[in-house]
Amino acid sequence: MSAFFEVPQKEVNLSAGTTRLPCFFTQVHYTVCLFTSDKEVVLQLLNGTGLQPALRLGSRYVVAVGLVQYRESDLGRYNELIVAIPSIPEGMRKPWCSWLDLVGSLETRKVGQHIIHIPVTSEFSRAAGQELWGYPKIVATVEHTAQADQLYTAVSEPQTKNLIAAMKGKLGWWIPSIPLSLITYSFMNHQLMRTAVKVRGWMKLRLQHGLRLRVGNSQHPMANDLRRLGLDGKKPFLVMDTDRFQSVFYPPQPMVEKELGTSR
Predict the structure, then answer these.
(1) What Å distances lie between residue 13 and 7, 19, 26, 237, 252, CA to CA?
(2) 254 is a domain residue
(3) Would 16 be classed as within a structural domain?
(4) I want to staple 101 with a disulfide (CB 3.0 to 4.6 A). Which of 22, 95, 108, 173 is the partner?
(5) Residue 54: CATH number of its domain
(6) Total count of domains within the chain
């Protein structure tokens, strides 16, 4: 194990078994797609969370969709699809440039991902996500195929097999890009939590791709939210991917009023 993973771990109990924290993800295929959406819809989806959208292009706010295949990790092997809104807590002073904040240190980072949907193929991962970090994980059917220059990811309802959403297309030519460590904002027992995620793995910035998101006929909440966000049939304005992604998910830390107050 490399120095990247030289972090002390402890065993933790879950309803579905045991794992370790911090949690290591050692072999991952990861693609991140950025879209823009109407300001009012994004604000409605964040209403009541105490979070505000952090990234925008012109008058529209950014929504992130992550397509992930975990081949080896402390949570086992599974696929997932993430829909998240880059956000910062209300009351926290906004960074001078939210986009530049994404390349800052984890210790001072303000812009984080607030996950609104995250279907996974593993019950163990669902339990870990909900119980350790407060992520709204559900178990669903998630296909993930990345071959040569093509990518296909699809999420379906496990009982009916109705398509919730799919991302498909050609990845196209690329230039190297640095990986971006990240933080997430989530809730546990109504408490806002901040989780630091250390990552590595050189990314490919896809400059000419053919990926498009298609929402199925499902009436699942995730499908409905993707339609509300206006993402059906849309092409992401930015795509980055790597088949050498690795990450360390640290335990979540509560955001207290004192921390928010000192950031004003």
Answers:
(1) 19, 7, 21, 41, 16
(2) yes
(3) no
(4) 95
(5) 2.40.400.10
(6) 1
- 177 occurs within a structural domain: yes
Amino acid at 251: P
Q: For residue 187, how far is the Cα from the chain centroid?
A: 15
Planar angle of CA 109, 211, 137, nearest 5 degrees: 50
Q: What is the pLDDT along the chain (264 residues), one digit of tens a residue?
A: 679 999 999 999 999 999 999 999 999 999 999 999 999 999 999 999 999 999 999 999 999 999 999 999 999 999 999 999 999 999 999 899 999 999 999 999 999 999 999 999 999 999 999 999 999 999 999 999 998 789 999 999 988 999 999 999 999 999 999 988 999 999 999 999 999 999 999 999 999 999 999 999 999 999 999 999 999 999 999 999 999 999 999 999 999 854 554 433
Which residue range forms the structural domain that includes residue 201? 22-262
Task: Answer whether residue 66 is part of any domain.
Answer: yes
